[in-house]
Amino acid sequence: MTPTPPAGLGEDIESRVAELLELSGAKANRDLLRDILVTGLSLARIDASRLDLKIAASALAEMERAFELFAHYRGVPKLTMFGSARTAVSDPLYAQATDLAARMAREKWLVVTGAGPGIMAAGADGAGTEMSLGVEIRLPFETASHPQLAAEGRLVEMKYFFTRKLMLMKESAAFAVLPGGFGTLDECFELFTLLQTGKAEPAPIVLLDLPGDPYWEALERFLKGEVTRRGLVNREDAALYRITDDVGVAVEEILGFYRNYHSRRFVGTTMVIRCRFAPSDEELAALNEEFSDICSSKGIWRTGPLPPERAGRDHLELKRFALEFDRRSHGRLRMLIDTINRWPASS
């Protein structure tokens, strides 16, 4: 919904906003920039408190700085690593996290962390400064473990956890969560929620345990024994994550997710799945038989790029198939993605 120009700020508000946009040199997306300005002015109309205004101003400023940082690396795949800030360098988990980050960096993935101590430092250590980005939270009792990230312009600082989580999740194509406390569990469950509800694009989530010292298995027992048993989540939602204590398996889970699957896009009610290899007649028939429950009676069909995709030149080189997805069965959608990644052409 486009904001209404705020009342009481003068009849020429639209022309003043247009003038500001012209002075800023804005060329693209002027409609959205106008909406941001109008929304800011609307805060005067509702007589927002000083605290409300401070929150809004700080959040927008933090997002602007983060958008600028990540814009330089838009075409590079990113893995966000979560875990405890309390993990000691001598802890085997630290070595586990370092190993995972190093392996992903060798695969040309950037590793994004919270730029603090513990698992966050391990991720940056493993990937190295050139393959790391940091989104730091400002806390009185915690400082960044990798000041070189700041020195090289590869770190942004946040006041608010919600803006920090937005950037740690929005920009990445995969996630690894190692054992941690309240903050790590908060981030883990936010990931689950975003993928379960379709508020984030499908992506692999690896919960990495330490061999012989399981942490996530207890969570899975709770999820299956209590949450799923009571019907509070679907049994298929377990497909949204993978628990392992093997770094090699974790890397394969991440890379394997994109072996054939590339991305999706909604065009109206149609969900287009972009992939590297088109389904054979047999594979398409198998998809229709196995996943008819998540799409309309029209089923699943091959397609070329749809007109909006052509207009935006949106990955026109990729193969496609489409379905009228029910927009609720995201665990089943993950199972569909796993299926197409197992097609022989993807090997």
Which short descriptors sum up this protein?
alpha/beta, 3 domains, 4-stranded antiparallel beta sheet, 13 helices, 45% helix, globular
Would you give an account of this structure?
The chain folds into three domains: 13-71, no CATH class; 78-257, Rossmann fold; 261-346. Helix content is 45%, strand content 17%. The chain has helices at residues 13-24, 30-45, 50-71, 92-106, 119-127, 147-151, 161-170, 182-197, 216-228, 247-257, 281-290, 307-311, 330-341; strands spanning 78-82, 110-113, 132-137, 155-158, 174-177, 205-208, 242-244, 261-267, 270-275, 295-302, 319-325. It is globular, with a radius of gyration of 22 Å. It starts with 12 loop residues before the first helix and ends in a 6-residue tail after the last helix.
